Amino acid sequence: MIASDRTREFEDQGYVLQRGFLSADEIEALREALREAQQVAAESDVLDRKGMTFKHNLWKASPKLREFITSPKVVGFLCDIVGPDLWVRWDQTIEKQPGGAAFPWHQDNGYNGLLDMHFQLWIALTPMTIDNGGLWLQPGSHKLGKVTHESIGSHVYNPGDESKEVLVPAEPGDALLFSSFMLHKTNQNVTEDQTRMAYVIEYMRLGDVDPFIEAPYLIAARGGEPAAALVPRQPGSRSLRNQRKYLVPRVHRSLSHLRHRLPTKLGGKSGS
Length: 272
Description:
Elements: H1 5-13, E1 15-18, H2 24-39, E2 46-49, E3 52-56, H3 63-69, H4 72-81, E4 86-96, E5 103-106, H5 109-112, E6 119-124, E7 135-137, E8 150-152, E9 155-157, E10 166-168, E11 175-179, E12 184-186, E13 196-205, E14 217-222, E15 225-231, H6 240-245, H7 247-265
Antiparallel strand pairs: 1-11, 2-3, 3-4, 4-13, 4-14, 5-12, 6-11, 6-13, 7-10, 7-12, 8-9, 14-15
């Protein structure tokens, strides 16, 4: 099969930008579905961090969002570039308020602990500019594979090669698909009255897994076609390759959680 131009662009640069992916009516319908889902989001699925608000797992609370992220339009765009078989790992809204802090260079794998590449579909809900904390990428950095990060406060960080950085300005309805191995960042929102908002959906190939999230799981595509289905088990979870790959990371994560709980259970101080 001959790779499409967009597939070649993704493989070379690590991202594809589709201007005007959603019409004005489609973006308004998406905003409304997100507002409804945000109102019922579990408190544990909301994170506020220095002027940035993340609300995730919204698709689990919204049939409208499940329909959107598995729609022929979205699935067709994805499968033309990274398909043909995909499931939805995660979704979230990101709001960066005026004064919202910078988010330093990183790969998304540096936060979620996954070993395989997955795919971020970033849909602009407002303009994204250099002033309101728009997205910066290092094209081609995905070819490095998974890199190590150092911890800086609540962030992880790898500067990569900052001489290669490019800003990706966007308007509402624009869609950016990029590799989770892509080094990216956002700067501080230095505006006085502009909140920058985006909706991000993460997709994985059916053969790859995330052993750290709970069921149900949402299939998006099979054979390059929409195939929306809620399933109790990740399709790749029975693979011996995946089980061996994540054996050590799962043990480390379990020990880390245990260490955080032990002081409280033993009657000691959990912090100052």
